[in-house]
User: What shape does this take?
Amino acid sequence: MLDLKIRNADVDDAAFLAWLILTAGRAHVGRGIWEVILNQPEEYCLNFLRVMTVTGDPHPFHYSCYLVAEAAEGPVSGLGGYDPDTQGYPKLMEALPEVFRKLGTPPGELAAGKTPRITASIPPALPGAWVIDSVATLPAFRRKGIVDRLLDHILASGRKKGYRRAQISIYLGNTPAQRAYEKHGFRLLDEWPDPYFAKEIGSPGMARLIRDL
Assistant: This one.
């Protein structure tokens, strides 16, 4: 078995988490959700996400929500888990002004103070669910069972916090991801197709998967 350390992310992981979030947003398609929201080159997107992970207050993409798998080379994989009631998307919107102060003018739809249209395609969190998000692994370390180990840890964390079920969302058509999560006890709950999402992302929409904890 690959020698790995599973640990909580910290502020020093900001650059890796930025890559993780951007890569998870791309999933099996070429252009990810963050590139649609920001409408900027990859370098800008990564810098934006790096700053976003270390804001003062927590939100779904804050470093405090993440676990990372670390090999001798450094972090190689990771995922997030959060309480949507206390760290959900409203908290992200509250944290964005801090990001804008550090980076300058808001990009894309955010510049007009609008909620990005693409986010309407994101399935909402079920009441009382422990939400898992932003799962990605460096290419050289894929298909080695690392995500399975991370999932074991993040699900155990949710169970310890008192959650009775977990939820994860995927892009429709991402069959390998769906199969991997189903092997880990998740089942498809529903699908959220959206023509706008299909046009911008190249996937018909998103789906929610759930499992008991």
